[in-house]
Amino acid sequence: MVSRVLGFVRDILIAGVFGASMGADAFFVAFKFPNFFRRLFAEGAFNAAFVPLFAGRLAEDGKRAALDFAAEAAAVLTTTLLAFTVAALLAMPWLMYVIAPGFVDQPDKFQLTIELTQITFPYLLFMALIALMGGMLNSLHRFAAVAAAPIVLNIVLIVALLAVRQGVLPDSVFPSSGHALAWGVFGAGVAQFIWIAYACNRANIMFHLPRPRLSPGVRKLIALMVPGIIGAGVVQINLVIDVILASTLAEGSVSYLYYADRVNQLPLGVVGVAIGVVLLPLLTRQLRGGEAEAARDSQNRAIEFALMLSAPATAALIVAPDAIVTVLFQRGEFDAAAAAATAAALRAFAVGLPAYVLIKSLTPGYFARQDTRTPVKIAVVAVALNIVLALILMRFMAHAGIALATALAAWLNAIVLGVVLLRRGHLSFDARLRRRAPRIVAAAALMGAVVFWGTEWLAAPLAGTEGSRVVALAALVAVGLVAFALLARILGAFRLDDVKAAFSKT
Hints:
The chain is mainly α. The chain is 83% helix and 0% strand. It has a domain at 22-229. The longest helix is centred in the N-terminal third of the chain and has 39 residues, at 22-60. The mean pLDDT is 84.
């Protein structure tokens, strides 16, 4: 949560400095490109394959064997990504024809995007090693250091943005604000790596890199990773497709989608990631220990927790996106037109928010059983649907159509993941989930009506000075939270003890 709050501060500063300009579009592409590979390889396919194998070694063969496996994996990962990074840096001008084809007709914007991406891309290497070491810490039930790592990123970028606003950076080193922010991303990668390495050292699980070799354990890791590259990263693939298509629309479209996605990522990042991080090693241990019923209960509670926190967030983002975006971003270079365009994208993204969180709750059911192939097949269909829908909807809804296509594709992905688990007998909805799920949805819908009424009642302060807008939005959020808590309690959607127990695990 601290990371997400600082992330909002960072994005507010970015909006004030860049707005939805050429420089903003170029930086967001440069920032998304290494982050795409980070989430796909490091936090996606690699983590999904590595954590069950590491946890299994830890449970069956002891700490020493698990650390030896981690060191072997890290050596191969580092060597591979070093080569990949060098190749990507050299090929960046040609890669941009694929990632941002709409920038080609604007030579200055195209060249700036290439330069910024070459600076940010090595961030991938640091984040991949952080994912490996973070997986080790999570397997030992040490979640705090990994969860706090993005705080370091946001602090570094906030400092860089404040330096840009104060004009204290030398033009000879940072010829534009985009260059300063891109170097901030690179520096943040180094700082985060040092932070996690320190945490591993304190936990006495730091290792030395051996000579890279394809040991049996590493070969098994790669075999599990390859299909998972698509399966675990379907949302990221869809977001990159969004950038590619948005680059062909009016200037600022890439920025509108970025800012909207950042707001949408708050509940996803806090709830979805927490569920996925805790659930994967938990399911792995339970299945290895033959505790099938306990594993089913864990999966049910994860789905229940995901709905309880994502459903009200979805309702609020759908009924009040204009108020949220205006208060967060509308200042400096970010004008009312940019706020309205971003709000339209946010409403569309929010349609898929429960699906994004459910995907985080359902995929561990496959990965804990070392099945990374099935999510691939599901992901291929979801990606194809996203492309087809985006191409159709963007003709009528511009950038908001791209966001809606991503949301609908996420729902397909989540539904099919759940259906397959049900058919295999790996998931069964217990009486508690069947009773509470519709009540959670009903409470969220009623809360949405309350929030909508609140936006009408607070219309004047929400359109007033910056101070009045902030106070009005804070009041609206407070009313929404209280309304959902009361409605959910009245409808029997949850018990306070259950909520406390869920939070204690995440």
